Amino acid sequence: MAIVLDSNQVRILCDQVGKKTQLLSIDVILPPHVLAELILWGKKTCLNRLCTLRPRIGLDHAHVMSALASCNEDEIRTFRPFPSPTTGNSKLYDQLVNALKGPSQRHQRWATDLKAANKDFCGRVKKSALDFRKYIRDEISAGKIQGAYKVASIEDAFDAFGKGPHSFIGSVVIATLSEGGKRQVVINDHDRLYGAVMANPFVSGLFKIILFYFLSYSRMWDHNHQKLNFDPTADRDDWTDMTVPFYAVPGDTILTQDKKLCNAIASVYGTGNLIVKKASDL
Fold this sequence. Notes:
Elements: E1 2-5, H1 10-19, E2 27-30, H2 32-40, H3 44-52, E3 56-57, H4 61-69, H5 73-78, H6 90-99, H7 105-141, H8 154-161, H9 168-178, H10 190-198, H11 201-217, H12 238-243, E4 253-255, H13 259-269, E5 275-277
Parallel strand pairs: 1-2, 1-4, 2-3, 4-5
Helix pairs in contact: 2-7, 11-13
């Protein structure tokens, strides 16, 4: 069992480790976007304390998608979002481990660039939510969806928007792996490519989390799930939150107190598959 850290729990976990030495043996996973926030926040004490836990730093999703583009079906199905000599980015992530001992100017630039990309993403999601609403209207107009469409579960939503490479999520997957057609992908058959991606528990979970947030941004949850609807804001970095469960598998624990992320995890992974706690509960 591993523990995956959200930004809001790092300091608390470090305090807990100081009180409970048995926590020194836990398997800690540090998402790269969380590491970037710690660097930008100047949390040197937290970084130093994390260093004693020897955390694994996950691959950024952009590097994952680049690696997947060069994989065959079996390799995609079994791919894990952690650095290895075969990913081509292992040296970069070895250098990121050194950031825990003391961030260099290079680490600062990396964190700044990553955060800028996140803010750019968050600035675009409002338009994306409007595009998604248009997609729904077009599907209704074409008779593919009946009535004023609302969803009650991620399973309902995936049935409507995730069946095959030509679905809404399918098109997002293909566009992401191919970088909008600019990157060559080894698997030319989109049905086979999409099937392999959605068979990978890490990667399929990420795209379902993305679907959850788009449903929330578009206020498409039904009247029994109104609490899941919320508006995107350009000053809130939802992308960092969205990537946290990307590095977990069933049985792992995610440390977070972000309500939106907790709701997303429960909706996408189901109760009990991924354990959600606060660091103070350890």
